[in-house]
Design a protein that fits this description.
The protein is an all-alpha fold and about 300 residues long. About 75% of the residues lie in helices and about 0% in strands. It has helices spanning about 10-50, 55-60, 75-80, 85-115, 120-130, 140-150, 155-180, 185-195, 200-210, 210-225, 230-235, 245-255, 260-280, 285-295. The protein is flat, with a radius of gyration of 26 Å.
């Protein structure tokens, strides 16, 4: 029988080596994360710095990194451009709110139905809903334009919102169905025993437990509608109905080939701020919703 003994010195040596490797791995991880974060944040920083430069300096060649003097001249130009910044901002907000509200209501009800009820053609209907993801957006713009025209919804933010809601449904229904399926049925059965109907159980029990999934669907819908460019370009013909992305493109074209880069960067900053604040505020719900919903099943 062989007895293996370890000296305290060798144990301390191995423990120290393990700590060194762990510290090196941690340092490398944080260094890589810092470099990656800098790559993503540099364009945002560049836009912010250029937006507060005087117009002459923002358009100078070669460009300067830091402004020699701070000025709100670019934001003042942006406020009076076209129909006015307030009009474009309001159109974007109205479009995003309509899409978020419509998408959340439909996907919550549809996801709950697919998760809790049995009916003929359930799998076929769910698969057909997901097939919308495979349809290229640009290929059905003309049919959608014709349909909206017959419904009298062309050049309408509401009509455009209906189109965007349709393309948000597949992911939203998929995520909400999986979110509801992650909830034990016994909780809803207890609510039914206490006198709640199916919608009562959904409202008072299930909906509160799948709130991270609801927030995730809402956040995805908001970002998609807020940044949407092709839809407003095709379905809106009145300049007073344009959204912020359309305004930025028109601003970037300029007059007689002259582009006001300072005003464009100011518009970029205004476009980024609402999305950034909303994402930071709802980040914990967003991550939890993806883990418990979209990655399940």
């Amino acid at each position: 029988m062989t007895v293996i003994t370890r000296t305290p010195g060798s144990t301390r040596h191995k423990t120290g080596a393990a700590r060194v490797r762990s510290a090196a791995a941690g340092t490398g991880y944080h260094l890589f994360s810092g470099v990656l974060a800098a790559i993503f944040l540099l364009p945002i920083l560049w836009a912010v710095l250029n937006s507060v430069k005087p117009a002459a300096e923002a358009n100078s060649n070669p460009p300067t990194l830091f402004p020699h003097s701070f000025s709100l001249e670019n934001y003042q130009k942006l406020a009076t451009y076209g129909a006015g910044l307030g009009t474009y901002l309001w159109n974007s907000i109205a479009l995003s709110v309509l899409v978020v509200v419509g998408t959340v209501i439909i996907t919550v009800l549809a996801g709950y139905g697919f998760a809790r009820f049995q009916f003929r053609g359930k799998s076929l209907l769910f698969g057909t809903t997901l097939l919308i993801l495979m349809v290229p957006y640009a290929t059905i713009l003309i049919p959608l334009f014709i349909v909206l025209g017959r419904l009298g919804l062309t050049n309408s933010v509401f009509g455009l919102a209906l189109v965007l809601i349709m393309f948000q449904l597949p992911f939203g229904v998929f995520l909400m169905r999986n979110s509801f399926e992650s909830i034990p049925r016994e909780l809803e059965e207890a609510a039914l025993v206490d006198g709640c109907g199916p919608f009562g159980a959904l409202r008072y029990v299930s909906l509160r437990l799948v709130m991270p999934g609801v927030v995730t669907v809402a956040l995805f819908s908001f970002i998609a509608s807020w940044n949407e460019f092709l839809g407003p370009l095709i379905f809106l013909s009145d300049g007073s109905q344009y959204t912020l992305p359309i305004m930025l493109v028109n601003l970037s074209i300029g007059q007689y080939g002259a582009v006001d880069y300072g005003a464009i960067q100011a518009g970029v900053v205004i476009t980024i701020v609402p999305v950034l604040l909303l994402y930071l505020f709802l980040q914990r719900f967003y991550v939890s919703g993806l883990v418990n919903g979209a990655l399940r099943g």
